[in-house]
Specification:
With 776 residues, the chain is an alpha/beta fold. The chain contains 32 helices and eleven strands.
Length: 776
């Protein structure tokens, strides 16, 4: 007789807790009497009456032991371990599963013994994952997969690979998780790529719950990796299959993920208001549909939690208040496992945002404190340090808002003990940032700078891994990462005459931010940092670092052989950005020359005028700008001193930061340009009548190879770059420059060339042709 029950599997992710649900079978108990006992246990288990199941299974274990039926005894112990897990009795669960594995080790290896061993190991794997022992869970999962592979059990092997992908996600290893999922469909690939062959495989696949679990998990993984269109495609496919099978719970789990992907799409900063509103509404509708369809309480809770956090994010306070009150009344129904604790933390975070942003809320800080105290009790029983760290982080934040500095500091320090930077850097940087804010609020500037610096150092050590160890970071970079850098710079530069150490650290911090922004954009640590002092590159070049802060514009000047210096313009960030935008608008042909000169002179006064004497005294001929924020949209050449443009006085250069490239002077060589351009309308984009005259003018000054209109094909461009040396590549075409690398492209005659494809194309030069492209 079989004894089975679907168990909750979920991975803990802080705050916007996008948890995936899959099912795993509890061991099937087979054998002769006590069949009646086992049938009764199964009925009670399915009804969720776990405390009544325990004595029945304990009785079954004794009965099998009395008859020396060690295989059935091992299976009964495994089921008992699964039941103890449901009751959050972790020690008893450990003892039961270890006893089961010991019995199985004493038996002769047979297909039946191996099947039971794999199922028992699956229960152990779940227990390890629940208690935060993720590497152990991964190792156990690999052992399970090998057993199923040996048995030729394809369905069980696929389910095991899904479990492995979830463990890999919890470890932050999302590319590996993606490849593991694709391997289920024999899709061996070096990258996480959704190919036409794979799409056909899905369509021809026999519909099953296992297939849906794999697609749902893949949709989540692709979202974290920044492949949002692919995530949409996979989840839509999964939803169609679930609907065809009329599986409401599976539909609910998929809608939950669809809501998450639409929400991430809505967070892209380059969207206009109607686009953003449409995506937010789609996400809210998906969460609502998930809650309506869910046949499991946990899925319903997660859908409502995500809806609540999105409502608070959108400042829809009235609806958020109603939903928050409903959810806090349901807390006693939350599961007592890791997923349930994650849900409570998620709720607490949303309520903190509600109290902070909505003055008319009925919630109090005390109510949230009680919720977190309750959550902490469950975390102590579970014994997972990371969960405990997240709870303490939330408590510290709550006390920070209440200005209970001693309590806030104590909770934050305690959390750092559970999540040290070398072990849990994605949590540690948030704790160090919180500690820095607390110290700053108490007037301890020195310690605040030390904490902020530690937080930035942890972020720098994470580099491209940041977007995978904490999936939420990549989609809220401006709220969860960028402020740390800027707040540190504010602290370092708030004195009128900061020390050289402070100026150097401020410069280093803003360069580290530039590097982090690139990593976040490409979802990868794409730029190898090689710090280089400017006087090692050019002794007649000065570097200007404008830094936009909340209440002022700071400029750091680096002149070879001289101490760093800074100068300040006190304007709000809004006023600064309005001026930058006016300058951009003034560059249009329709603008009046007088208007253009006025804003160009204002920018000159802010960025150059205070340092004119230094530049002249040191014989500076080249200005290198490391621009910040909206300033990147402006050509520095148009700055005007009232008599001349800046380009008439200096050589000008731009760089994202001197850490990002190994700078060196250009050799005096004969220049040659590869020009590719479109003049005609193509692929829904209008004609570019100015391109023809642009190409004609360039060709009159310098030798060129040209790929125009029908000749500007992706393959043709690649061939030219690969086979010939061009220090300059000039592209005159349409393009889209988005906050997402996936949506950033230039237009060729035959197709769009994505920014990552362009990168590969530019690197495709043959081994015999190594002259670098100096200007693109």
């Amino acid at each position: 007789m079989k004894f089975s029950r679907s168990l909750l599997r979920s991975i803990f992710i802080f705050f916007l807790s996008f948890l995936l649900v899959i099912t795993i079978p509890v061991i099937a108990v087979q054998g002769q009497p006590p069949q009646d006992i086992l049938q009764q246990a199964r009925t009670l288990y399915d009804a969720g009456k776990f405390r009544e199941v325990v004595p029945l299974l304990q009785q079954a274990v004794k009965s099998f032991s009395a008859t020396s039926d060690r295989l059935n005894q091992a299976m009964a112990l495994g089921n008992l371990a699964a039941t103890w897990q449901q009751l959050a009795q972790w020690q008893q669960a450990e003892e039961s599963v270890n006893s089961s594995l010991s019995l199985l080790a004493s038996l002769e290896e047979t297909p039946e013994q191996q099947r039971v061993l794999a199922q028992t190991l699956d229960i152990q794997r779940q227990l390890q994952q629940e208690r935060g022992r993720l590497q152990d869970a991964l190792d156990t999962g690999e052992r399970i997969s090998k057993i199923y592979q040996k048995l030729g059990a394809k369905a069980q092997l696929a389910q095991s690979q899904i479990h492995q992908s979830l463990t890999l996600q919890a470890l932050g290893l999302y590319p590996r998780a993606c490849k593991t999922l694709l391997n289920i469909y024999q899709q061996e690939t070096a990258t996480c790529e959704i190919t036409p062959v794979l799409l056909e495989t899905w369509k021809s696949q026999t519909p099953s719950v296992s297939h849906l679990s794999a697609l749902n998990s893949l949709g989540h993984t692709l979202r974290v990796l920044g492949q949002l269109d692919e995530s949409r495609l996979v989840l839509t496919t999964a939803l169609e299959i679930a609907q065809s099978l009329n599986l409401p719970q599976e539909q609910a789990a998929i809608y939950l993920n669809i809501g998450n992907t639409e929400r991430v799409l809505a967070n892209q900063p380059d969207l206009d208001s109607p686009q953003k509103a449409e995506l937010v509404n789609t996400a809210l509708a998906a969460y609502t549909r998930s809650a309506q369809l869910a046949t499991r309480t946990d899925t319903q809770i997660k859908a409502n939690l995500n809806r609540l956090s999105l409502l608070t994010e959108q400042k829809n306070w009235s609806e958020a208040e109603t939903m928050g009150r409903s959810l806090i009344n349901q807390v006693p129904q939350f599961p007592v496992n890791k997923a349930g604790l994650a849900a409570q933390i998620n709720l607490a975070q949303s309520l903190i945002s509600l109290v902070e942003g909505f003055s008319n809320t009925s919630f109090s800080y005390r109510e949230i404190e009680q919720l977190l105290d309750r959550t902490n009790q469950g975390a102590n029983q579970l014994g997972d340090p990371l969960t405990q760290a997240y709870i303490l982080l939330s408590q510290g934040r709550l006390f920070e808002l209440e200005q209970k500095w001693t309590l806030a500091e104590a909770r934050t320090k305690q959390a750092l003990n559970y999540a040290p930077s070398y072990q849990s850097p994605d949590v540690a940087y948030q704790l160090l940032w919180q500690m820095g804010r607390i110290r700053k609020a108490q007037g301890d500037k020195e310690e605040a700078i030390a904490n902020y610096t530690q937080a930035v150092n942890v972020l720098s050590s994470l580099r491209g891994d940041l977007v995978t160890v904490n999936p939420n970071v990549q989609f809220s970079f401006r709220e969860s990462v960028e402020p740390i850098y800027r707040q540190l710079v504010e602290l370092l530069l708030e004195e009128k005459n900061p020390s050289q150490n402070q100026l150097q650290l401020a410069r280093q911090t803003i360069e580290s931010l530039q590097l982090a922004e690139l990593d976040n954009f490409f979802r990868d640590a794409c730029a190898n940092a090689k710090p280089k002092f400017i006087d090692q590159v050019d002794t007649q070049a000065a570097v200007i670092y404008p830094i936009i802060l909340s209440d002022r514009l700071e400029v750091i000047l680096s002149v070879p052989g001289q101490p760093l210096r800074k100068y300040t313009t006190y304007q709000s960030q809004t006023e600064l950005e309005n001026t930058f935008k006016q300058t951009r608008v003034s560059l249009r042909r329709t603008a009046f020359p007088k208007e253009q000169l006025q804003v160009a002179q204002k920018l000159y006064d802010w960025l150059i005028r205070p340092t004119e004497q230094d530049l002249a005294a040191n014989g500076i001929k080249t200005l290198v700008f490391v621009l910040d924020g909206y300033l990147r949209n402006l050509p520095m050449a148009v700055l005007h001193d009232g008599q001349k443009y800046l380009i008439q006085k200096y050589n000008l250069a731009l760089t994202p930061g001197l850490q990002l490239i190994q700078s060196q002077p250009l050799k005096q060589t004969q220049l040659k340009v590869l020009i590719a351009g479109l003049t005609a309308a193509r692929q829904g984009f209008p004609a570019l009548p100015g391109v023809a005259s642009e190409i004609k003018q360039i060709s009159g000054k310098i030798p060129t190879n040209q790929l125009i209109d029908q000749n500007f094909l992706k393959a043709s461009l690649q061939k030219e770059i690969k086979t010939q040396s061009f220090p300059i590549v000039h592209l005159a075409t349409h393009g889209l420059f988005s906050s997402s690398a996936t949506d950033t492209f230039i237009l060729a005659w035959d197709e769009r060339i994505n920014v990552k494809e362009l990168d590969q194309l530019l690197r495709s030069r043959s081994a015999e042709n190594r002259e670098p492209i100096e200007l693109l």
